[in-house]
Amino acid sequence: MEQLSKILYENILTILIFIPIIFSLPLLFLKKQSEKFIKIYSLLLSLIVFIFSLFLFLKFNPDVEGYQFIVKYKWISFLNADYHIGIDGISLLLIMLTTFTIPLSILISWQSVNKRIKLYYFMILILEGSLIGVFSSLDLLLFYVFWEFILIPMYFMIGIWGSEERVYAAVKFFLYTMIGSVLLIIGVIWLVYSCMEKDMFLNAENALRKFTLDITQLDKISPFLQPQRQILLFLLFTIGFLIKIPLFPFHTWLPDAHVQAPTAGSVILAALLLKMGTYGLLRFSVPLFPVAFLTLTPYLAVLAVVGIIYGALVSIVQKDMKKLVAFSSVSHMGFIVLGITALTQEAVQGSVIQMVNHGLSTGALFMLVGMLYERRHTKEIAQFGGIAKVMPVYAGIFLVVSLSSIGLPGLNGFIGEFLILLGAFGSQNLKSIYYSVFSATGVILSAVYLLWMYQRVFTGPVDKDENKNLKDIGKIELACLIPVLIFIVWIGVRPNTFLHKSEKSVNKIILQFKNAEIINKTRNTIDINNSVFREEK
Amino acid sequence: MDKFFIFVLIFPLLGFIINLLFGKRIKSEKFIGIFSSAVVLIPFLIAVYFLIYLFSLEPQSRFITLNLLSWIAAGFFNIQFSFLIDPLSLCMVLVVTGVGFLIHWYSIGYMHNDSMFSRFFAYMNLFILSMLILVLADNFLLLFLGWEGVGLCSYLLIGFWYEKKFTGDAAKKAFIVNRIGDFGFMIAMFLIFLNFGTLNISQFLAAIPVSFEFNSGLLVAVSLLLFLGATGKSAQIPLFVWLPDAMAGPTPVSALIHAATMVTAGVYLIARCSLLYVYSPITTNIVLIIGIFTALIAAVIAAKQNDIKKILAYSTISQLGFMFVALGTFTYWLAIFHLITHAFFKALLFLGSGSVIHAMSDEQDIRNMGALKDKMKITYYTFLIGALAISGIPPLAGFWSKDEILFKTFLNSGLIFYIVLLGIAFLTAFYMFRLVTLTFYGEPRYAANIHPHESPKSMTIPLLILCGLSVIGGFIGLPHITHLPNFLERFLSVVFDKTETALMMYSQVNKPEVSLEIILLILSVVVALISITYSYKKFSAVKKFKASRGFAKIVENKFYVDEIYDRIIVNPLYFISDKLLWKIFDIKIIDGFINGLADFIKKSGEDWRRIQSGIVQDYALITVSGIIIIIIYLIFF
Questions:
Q1: Most buried pick, A26, B204, B552, B566, via CB within 10 A?
Q2: Interface pTM, i.e. ipTM
């Protein structure tokens, strides 16, 4: 028994990644008629994963610096690629968000998805496994494989189960993300070679003399790379991330994808897939290319601030509820990027918690809009009015989630936004308070678009006959939303439960960055050597 | 023992949760009403107990800090759930829970048979909780939690009858306008944290005299930003536009939130940070000017309104202006004094108007009232006392506080300001008695099918108690010439003693002359009496109402402030977002580029396909040219 729990403990991450992937395979061989079984089976499977992840959450030691639950096996030996996984506090929170969101996405689809359901739940489950893989890979190739793999189920989710213009949206999503992926793989290859060169040069005799894909090794070497090279590599890595986030002006795939995707697709997209971008920024772009990051900070921060305001302004004028929420995502994700560019403890921790918050509140908003869509088959705001009268409980929950998204103190959204703005205000990396000041106007604008939508949909007289007999929220729907509501309040009142987990990990990233800054200042000598090295070549 | 105070917060919280979750299932209105009122009454009693307890302590040690647990901790940023009980916050707690309790009690009758009875009390309890957090908070962020909490309750309660079209607009407007103020508040917090390393209010204030000069740039910026927050919550120029619309909510809400308590949060905030404002006299002057302008404009508008609640709303804005004038003349205790007396008489007036509206079957236009004096005696007499109190007739509550403000303004800011204030006092008495006369005197002008009647006891008893408070409330702050003790000033002096010291360093405080004070006192009473008489004469005989023209029409339309804001801010913003950003930039430019790119790739793919011709010579040519290009690259780059 002890043996078993030890094995379990050491391989918990592997279990989390592969349970959903392996155990979803039998779904494909089931008979079509066993609908109910398919639904219950996938839900139970995702719940088991969630329970395992709770174990991960409890066993995670927030006082340890660096990665935990590390597992490393040889994978592809001629590439030196390993099956190398491990998590820090940032990954932990995102994995928790994943295992929390997936059961809800499955449950929310029970009634709404009737087409090819075997394939549907199979897609969701392999998505879950690959997402956990993305958030725990410590090997670049492994990361890339998971990263790419996620594209496929998401593409099909939009393309098969989406609404009328699903094919256009799916292709747009696919192409946008593909561009990022191609750049990313070029970046990975080039980085690995550059680091091998640099390593031989720096450590002469002791050099590894072979390339490595291990990011815990790479981040010791790559900060020494030449600034120009770093900037190019940074761009190759980061453009893919920025598209995924999506940061203004790479965002135009998002509204289309959201509007066309089925409810669960939107929830997973907003809550989890977008986080891959900000996670990549924090895990790769910052530690691997600190000099480039330092140089490009102003550009990124400006894009983030413009995104915050632009996304909010465009949200105001949307006539489709899903589009409105999609554009609000652009605005909220801008906050997360701003926090990362600020690179202060407060701001980055704010960004990490904001990733979770955005997942919860935007995910819940998409679920809510989806519920209304199932009843009325429209998401157009003008089709509603006075819904609070016929669906009082639904209206109440909608309001709480909106307020969370608006950033009302006492609910979760405020914690992240406030920490980000506070950290960005005094950030030495940003060097100006105005990024934070301009972003803070997003706080006013988010109240404008969400409360205005709330007013138009829920208040006033019920003037459309179709709306007079809408059913209030059902039991299954309630079961999807109550867990989210609990965390919305929990994070708002006791955020330390979660902030504490990411403290050391964020601190490490910032320290790495500070060290790299020092290296950069003493770069002159290295540069001279570097030119010698070049001539030899 | 001190920890025991936390029940002040726990009871309203309990009330909120139980009403929200189980209210629908509890069928008995009586139970909900009594329960919800009790969770406000108990904190009041605890506060009274602590008042006695504070008196038993040495004045210097009347500060009790309650540190509960950490709220947000990240990096150097660590915010506690910590509360400060001192004379100032305790005064506020007493007002909030005391007046709050009476208004809860009144609401039992007023909200009778409303389909969302329990929901109403849930929001009211939540409001009390948030307001208590606001006044008790020991750090700015916790204060902000309460600040936003009361804003939320205000939003929920303004929009309480959500099926009406205009309530939604009014609620949204209140929230958004307040958010503009909150933006200032947030930036102020960032500045404070960046420069002081803390958001704790006492530590922040203690650090000011150590390291800053008067009018130092940072202090002026912080104080102005906090003041921006205050103008939002306390409905001052330029953010006052939400308050008149907020009258769309049930009348007890207008009494509690939009007259007696929440709207005074801005006044409280500045009084709490008084040392900061003494150190930035520039801001204090701005506070004075904004206060006086707001008081004037609101009083002018009030004189031409016909909706009974709108008149009272503009009157509230005007009276809040008086409080800001007190803050602008560095007399902080006086602002709190006027805040307290105003809470009494304005709550009384609003509840009275609620009683009238109740009796008139939801009619709010005073042109359609008249001669209600005999139909509802208690409401009439209590309303009359309230009107006399706000007009400044001795010895009622409003007289003492308002007169002291006039006097202090004369001493500290000069004759011109005094004359303006005196003019406003004249206008106040004028519009109040226009309201009283048109409502209670003259001929009945309402439809024959309306049968006015006195309200039930649960409504009239709170009226009587508030009436009593409006009569005697002023005696806690008697002026020096009476040679009687000024309880309030003495009680609050511990809170403001550092402020006083700093003030003496900055400027000479003028010593009041006794004879002068008596003359000014008599003058303001005379002005009020003339105004009342004039107003009564003018309106008691009115039978028909003419449409107003010229300037009067502009006033009646509230100087078109809403329309101007719409024209210069709201509409352009919408236009830019819709046409420029969304339809042109997003769809045409970015998406146009992306789709164009996709088309281009598709097209060029078709073109390049021709290269794949199958002719060996072509391939050789391409290979050779490729090699040449590579060689050129290697040589030259």
A1: B204
A2: 0.92
